[in-house]
Amino acid sequence: MTSSDLASRLAALMPALRGRLVAGQLLGPLTWFRVGGPAEALFTPADEADLSYFMAQVPADVPVYPLGVGSNMIVRDGGVRGVVIRLSPRGFGQVSTADNMVTAGAAALDKRVAEAAASASVGGLEFFFGIPGTIGGAVTMNAGANGGETKDVLVSARGVMRDGAIRTLSNTDLSFAYRTSQSPPGFIFTEALFAGRIEAPEVIRHRMQAVQHHRETAQPIREKTGGSTFKNPPGHSAWKLVDAAGCRGLKMGGAQVSEMHCNFLINTGDASAADIEALGEEVRRRVKAQSGVDLLWEIKRVGER
């Protein structure tokens, strides 16, 4: 089945669909690495009800994969089979506050959520200011930075099941662990509720400035990168292991281990997804040989090689 065949098949099954369904959309331009092949079909739902309708109608044999802003992922060069669902800021990017609570759509940028919380004198969410992704991704991987994690502030998260049912999961339901959470198979987050604490705005802003200073001085944020590449093994810092294995600045094709922070891989301009993934695997091999430690990928890798 070609991309156009799948898109046409789905469009025929869903006459009441209000979102945008596109065949063969290149995904590289939608990711921070700027690499990767096409989605067999790309669906951008109008809102949660539209997403629910789509999920209820899409055949069970069609894979479905959610995509945020593509900041923590490698889309492989062969592209993604099935449907990639991209939640838009228009339909899923709302952020609101009430007392010490913050409600954010899954497509809201983490940084914007931190800013909205600060404007409402809600502290405790400043770590989001240093995470280059969306709330949906943050909940999925228990994103964290500068001593804070999503699990520390999340009250509940709402989303759509693979059968189209809309469900709300509690913090406990998600069984958070380091850089991971557990949700039902095929679940797509649409909104999250967070609880912070009321604090003086200047105190919150000071902490946010510290987060930003750390990012600007210690991370290659102006490069084509996917953020932290490997999880920190228990008792270790991933970047120190990479550095000790002599991998700082290591290159493979158009991909390179950052000289600035060696737990970041960068696209120097003409890398393929295969270059970046192969470089990551070579780093893992060298770290294992040098220290005996198995590095685990933090960046998600999806699609066909």
Describe, in plain words, how this protein is organized in 3D:
By secondary structure, the chain is of the alpha+beta class. It folds into 3 domains: 3-86, Uridine Diphospho-n-acetylenolpyruvylglucosamine Reductase, domain 2, CATH 3.30.43.10; 92-203, 2-Layer Sandwich (Uridine Diphospho-n-acetylenolpyruvylglucosamine Reductase, domain 3), CATH 3.30.465.10; 223-302, Uridine Diphospho-n-acetylenolpyruvylglucosamine Reductase, domain 1 (Alpha-Beta Complex). It is 28% helix and 26% strand. It contains 8 helices and 19 strands. The protein has helices at residues 3-13, 48-57, 89-92, 110-119, 135-141, 201-218, 238-244, 273-291; strands spanning 20-23, 39-44, 64-67, 73-75, 80-86, 95-98, 101-105, 122-123, 144-145, 148-149, 154-160, 166-170, 188-195, 197-198, 224-228, 251-252, 255-257, 264-267, 300-302. The strands form 6 sheets. The chain has a 5-stranded antiparallel sheet with strand order 6-7-13-11-12. A hairpin with a 2-residue loop joins strand 6 (95-98) and strand 7. The protein is globular and about 55 Å long. The model has no long low-confidence stretch (mean pLDDT 96).
